[in-house]
Inverse folding.
């Protein structure tokens, strides 16, 4: 009996020892994984930097357009840059040096920073239904470009724009009526190329043409109504470019 007890004791002790060993080993494995994850995350974050004023000022407008194009490709490929938001908040807390500004519609399917893979402090964004430029938006653009030193202004329309469709349909409701007046010139531009029976919200080709003409018209208006921005374009300090966003594919088409 005594011998059996002794053997049982040995057996249990061995079991306990093995169990502890396994637990320690597991703990070590977990620690190693966590360390690796931290290192990987830090490595990813190292790619996420905000530009200094000197770095931003040294950019040419074409460099900024190339970054917008690259960012959109990353968005389409679902490989957005991992953001170190805390570091970005610390870096931009006292000053900002955005590379560009995007004028876009308010549509929920057009999250501008995400579409171009831009982080906190990288770009200015102006949003209004139908992406037109009224006095307030023109002032905002002059601030972004002339005062804050951004290099590129993107005017971006998008597929299935409710504001443009409403303007085509002649919707009248509260303040929406006056807002839609800003899209009228684009409709008139488009009507030149479509016979009366084809000018309808049900004609996708027509709607698409109005959306793109609205972008081009807005760019013309910006240059006409803002001598400050027109002169900056003339002096090649900044570039104003048109864009069209496809809500199905996520792709941005650049308009000439
Ligand atoms: Zn829209």
């Amino acid at each position: 009996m005594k011998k059996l007890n002794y053997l049982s004791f040995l057996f249990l002790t061995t079991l306990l020892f093995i169990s502890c060993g396994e637990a320690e080993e597991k703990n070590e494995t977990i620690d190693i994984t966590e360390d690796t994850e931290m290192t990987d995350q830090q490595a990813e974050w190292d790619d996420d930097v905000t530009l200094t004023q000197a770095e931003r000022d040294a950019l040419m407008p074409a460099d900024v357009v190339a970054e917008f194009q690259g960012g959109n490709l990353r968005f389409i490929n679902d490989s957005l840059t991992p953001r170190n938001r805390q570091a970005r908040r610390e870096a931009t807390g006292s000053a900002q040096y955005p590379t560009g500004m995007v004028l876009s519609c308010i549509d929920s399917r057009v999250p501008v920073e995400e579409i171009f893979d831009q982080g906190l402090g990288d770009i200015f964004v102006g949003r209004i239904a139908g992406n037109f430029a009224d006095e307030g938006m023109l002032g905002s653009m002059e601030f972004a470009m002339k005062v804050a030193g951004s290099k590129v202004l993107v005017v971006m329309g998008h597929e299935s724009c409710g504001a443009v469709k409403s303007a085509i349909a002649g919707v009248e409701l509260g303040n929406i009526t006056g807002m839609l007046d800003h899209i009228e010139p684009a409709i008139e531009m488009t009507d030149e190329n479509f016979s009366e029976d084809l000018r309808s919200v049900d004609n996708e080709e027509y709607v698409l043409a109005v959306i793109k003409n609205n972008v081009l018209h807005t760019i013309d208006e910006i240059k006409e109504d803002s001598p400050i921005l027109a002169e900056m374009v003339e002096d090649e300090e900044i570039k104003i470019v048109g864009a069209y966003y496809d809500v199905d594919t996520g792709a941005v088409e650049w308009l000439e």
Q: What stands out?
A: The pocket of zinc ion is lined by residues 105, 107, 129, 158, 161-163 (CB under 6 Å). The two ends are 96 Å apart (CA to CA).
